[in-house]
Amino acid sequence: MNLLWHSFVLVLLIFQGPICNCSSISDLFDSWCQQHGKIYSSEQERVYRFKVFEENYVYITEFNSKGNSSYTLGLNAYSDLTHHEFRNSFLGLSSSANDFIRLKRGSNAVGVLSDVGDVDIPSSLDWRDKGAVTNVKNQGSCGACWSFSATGAMEGINKIATGSLVSLSEQELIDCDRSYNDGCGGGLMDYAYEFVIKNGGIDTEKDYPFKEREGTCNKNKLERHVVTIDGYTDIPQYDEDKLLKAVATQPVSVGICGSERGFQSYSKGIFTGPCSTALDHAVLIVGYGSENGLDYWIIKNSWGTSWGINGYMHMQRNTGNQEGICGINKLASYPAKSSPNPPTPPAPGPSKCSTFTSCGQGETCCCGWKFLGVCLSWKCCGLDSAVCCKDERHCCPQDYPICDTIRNLCLKRMSNATIVQQPQKEAFTGKFRGLIYPF
C-alpha cells in the first residue's frame, strides 16, 4: 500500500499539481472535500463516499502509471461517484438518437438548410480566441446536455453574425421545449433548434436562469425573443471533411459516447478512447488543432470547470474510423443566422410581493412574518429566482436550493445521497424591506 500511495502522490504532482501536503489517502480525501465543497448527510454516507473515492484514485493511478496514453486522468468534482452513478446522472442525449439518425437525417425537416460551401480551413482554429464561446456551464444532475450543446452553437453563430456574445437559456429549452425533447430526461439538438425557430427566438440565461431541474414553462420569459436563428444544417454522418468545414465556419453541436469510465476522470491530453460509438451525450466542438502528430477536436463540455481542461477536452480526429472517436461523426449539426435579432425587450421591472410592497430587479420576494397563512411582512432576497428558507430570515440561490439554517449553508443534492456545499460566501443575503398589514 505504501508503494501504491507514493506512486499516486508522484502521479498527482506530475499531472495535476499539488492539492495538499497529504500523508494518507484519508488526508487527501479531506482536502478534496474542502476543495470541492463536499459535505455529506451522515457519517455512514461519508464512509461510503470515501471508499468510492479510494477506488477511483486507484483506477486513476493505475491508468496514469502505464505511461502509454496520450491523455491522463485526475481527481475532479465527480471522484466520489461510482461510474454507474456518474453515467446515470450526467449525460442526457436522447436514447432515440440512433433511431433519429436513421429516420430523420436527409429528410425535409423544419429548418434544414443546404450543405456547407467552400471555406478556407486553417491548420488550427479556436473559437474561444474569437470571442464566440461563453463560459463553461454545469448541467449538474439534470440530463439536459442536449440543451447546453444547442445553446452553445446558437451563442456562437449569434456572436459571428451580430458581434454580440449572449449566454442563452438552457432552462427555457428544458421547461418549454416538450414536443419531442424531455427536459432533464434527455433530448436532441435539432429539436431544440426547431423549437427556437418556431418560437421566434430564445431568452437569455440571465433572465431565465438554469435551475438544474425541470419546471413549468415561464410564458413571460418564453416571449422574450432576445436571439433568433433562421434554420439549421445536419452534417451527413461519417463525413469528417464536411464536419471540419463546418467547424471552420462556426461552433458545431455533436453527439458522442460520454459514458466510458475514462470520461469521468479525464484531466488533460488528447482523448483516444477506448469508447463506444453508441451516442449518449452531447457536447460542442469549438475548434481543432494538432499536437505531436495527433489531430484533435476542442470539445466544450457541460460538466463544470473542475472536469477536464477547465471544462474542455481534446478528442482525437482523423482516426480513420468513419464514425469518429466516440461516434463524434454521427450526429453533428449547427444553426444558421442571417437576419438581425429583434429589438431588445424591456428589462423586467420590480418583483411585486403584494399590493403595496415590491422588490427590485434581480431580487426575490420572501415572506418574513406569516400569521394564519397570511404574510404580514416581506423581505427582499438579493438573489434572482431565489429559494426562501422556512426560517423566514434567509434565502438560497436557485441552484443550491436546500436551506441548512443550523449550519448557515445552502446545499444541493447530487447523485443518491451526496450533498454539495454552496461555494459562495454570501450564502444568505436576505434584506429587510418594510412592513405591511392586512386590511
From TrEMBL:
Q: Which UniProt keywords apply?
A: Cell membrane, Disulfide bond, Glycoprotein, Hydrolase, Membrane, Protease, Signal, Thiol protease, Vacuole
Where does the Granulins domain start and stop, copy by copy?
A: 353-410
Q: Which GO terms describe its cellular component?
A: plasma membrane; vacuole
Q: Could you tell me which residue ranges the Peptidase C1A papain C-terminal domain spans?
A: 121-336
On whether Glycoprotein is a keyword of this UniProt record, the answer is: yes
Q: Which Pfam families match?
A: Granulin, Inhibitor_I29, Peptidase_C1
Q: Which domain of life is it from?
A: Eukaryota
Signal peptide range:
1-22
Supply the name of the protein: Uncharacterized protein
Question: Which organism is this protein's natural source?
Answer: Anisodus acutangulus
